[in-house]
Design brief:
Helix content: under 10%
CATH superfamily: Hexapeptide repeat proteins
Bound molecules: coenzyme A
Shape: globular
Low-confidence stretches: 165-179
Radius of gyration: 17 Å
Largest sheet: 9 strands, mixed
Strand order of the largest sheet: 1-4-7-10-13-16-19-21-22
Mean pLDDT: 87
Length: 183
Amino acid sequence: MVEMGARGEPFIHPTAIVHDSAHIGPGTAIWAYVVVEMGARLGENCVVGTHTYVGNYASIGDRTRIMGQCYIPTRIKIGRDVFIGPQVSFLGDKYPQVNKPNHTENPVTIEDNVSVGANSVILPGVTLGQGCRIGAGSVVTKDVLPWFTVAGNPARAMKKPVTSWDETYEGLNGPHAPGLRGL
Ligand SMILES: CC(C)(COP(=O)(O)OP(=O)(O)OC[C@H]1O[C@@H](n2cnc3c(N)ncnc32)[C@H](O)[C@@H]1OP(=O)(O)O)[C@@H](O)C(=O)NCCC(=O)NCCS
């Protein structure tokens, strides 16, 4: 049986590959076959599920939980208490190609308390505002305002904003409901 590190030390599964320069906070668990690249920083008491990839200089806040098989690319910023479901991809290059001259990444930003449903895809440069929820299987192409729920492909707002996840609220129907900037 694998046990967490003693005294709040991070736990790193023997099959994980973690670059020497990566910072893994106390109490954080890095599970089987995870890759953590150069300069990545993970806070305290995070969990990174099996087969997830964490790119160069990614920044992940305290208590954030990332399920298995996620793609967390270079220089992404993820806040605290964020939940990321399994098989979520955050993209960094809108027009990828092999041997691209002048390649630059346009990383996603994820604010605190966000929840991203399983199998979602978040396009480059998008900001997920504090406390927003992304429905399972969404393709998010624009910034999401704080405390909104969005879902679908392309993702559209489902709900009025809430001030906490415990509130109930009425749905707003239609493609022009608020919640996605620019719509
Ligand atoms: C987005 C979500 C939070 C909405 O939950 P909810 O507020 O209870 O919404 P409801 O289930 O009442 O659904 C409201 C409507 O949205 C639709 N809907 C719900 N989730 C959807 C989704 N992910 N994509 C597209 N449409 C969705 C429903 O079909 C329903 O449509 P209708 O009004 O035409 O019948 C939830 O459905 C979801 O996707 N959660 C993520 C779950 C997940 O990935 N967990 C990972 C665990 S490991």
